[in-house]
Amino acid sequence: xxxxxxxxxxxxxxxxxxxxxxxxxxxxxxxxxxxxxxxxxxxxxxxxxxxxxxxxxxxxxxxxxxxxxxxxxxxxxxxxxxxxxxxxxxxxxxxxxxxxxxxxxxxxxxxxxxxxxxxxxxxxxxxxxxxxxxxxxxxxxxxxxxxxxxxxxxxxxxxxxxxxxxxxxxxxxxxxxxxxxxxxxxxxxxxxxxxxxxxxxxxxxxxxxxxxxxxxxxx
Length: 219
Known about the structure:
- The longest helix has 15 residues, at 181-195.
- A hairpin with a 2-residue loop joins β4 and β5.
- The protein has eleven helices and seven strands.
- The radius of gyration is 17 Å and the shape is globular.
- α8 crosses α10 (181-195).
- The strands form two sheets. Strands 2-1-3-6-7 form a five-stranded parallel sheet, sandwiched between helices.
- By secondary structure, the protein is of the alpha/beta class.
């Protein structure tokens, strides 16, 4: 059975996505999360999830940081970004950071269904009116370099990095992840080496570059 996770803090959008998914894939299993922490927790407890429909702006995730966390901690799960941020340059960045496609929040249920089916068939999907514009944009070297560095982290190192970015100390990270503090220290050293940074501040600044301004809310 196909299993989807809808991660969006807006109940009406979650309901619309659920309806479109059910129409497109009758009988599919759908889980929901209203924040990034809830999405990551569901993914950790449900390795059978095939696809995440991810909002870029919700508690715990502002911009591309949530996408980076999902791709880092659960690299085997496909991600379709769903956002009101539908500028071609933003969509280009979304793809460069590992999303399999992009659905604008103005998309019709038919388009949402097409996107879901396409990605589950190991394809990619962009709305026709955006695909051509995005195709003409070159990838930003800074984005591709950061995506490459983040991809070098193990799943556990990605979890440690996310907690570092929250300002947690090594002991707090160890308690949160139920591992030894010396293990956290080893992960931190590896993270700094793979990201080519010297300290927590620089690592945090890298993640800061993934933030985007708030999109205009759809009434």
